[in-house]
Amino acid sequence: MADATGLGPLKTARGYYERAWRQELKRIHPHWTAATIRKNLKWLWDSRTQAEEDACQLLVDNGASAHPVIDVNIAPHSSVEDNMPPDARAAFWSTWAAQAGVAPVVLPAVLPAPAPVPAPVLPVQPLNSSVTFLPAIPHMTELPKFPTERDEHADWVAHDPSDLISFPDSTPADRWQGARMLGRGAKGVVGLFVKLDEHDNIVDRVAIKDTAKDPPEVWFDLIRWRDRLPMDIAILERLETQGAHLNILAYRGYRLSTIQQRYRLYNAVCDYGCLMDALEFYSAPWRRRRNTHRKMEFDTIFGTDEAKRLAAAAYEFASPFDSVAAAQKALATEDLWGDGEVDDWKKGPFALPTEVIPEAFLWEVFRCLVEACSYLESGAGVDLGPGKDWRPILHADLHLQNVFVMPPEPDTGERVDEDMASPGEEGDGEDGRKTYVDGPEPSSRTSTERNSTSKAQATTTKTTHGTTSPTTAPRT
Question: What are the structural domains of the chain?
Answer without folding.
Answer: 13-98 (no CATH), 153-269 (3.30.200.20), 272-339+351-408 (no CATH)
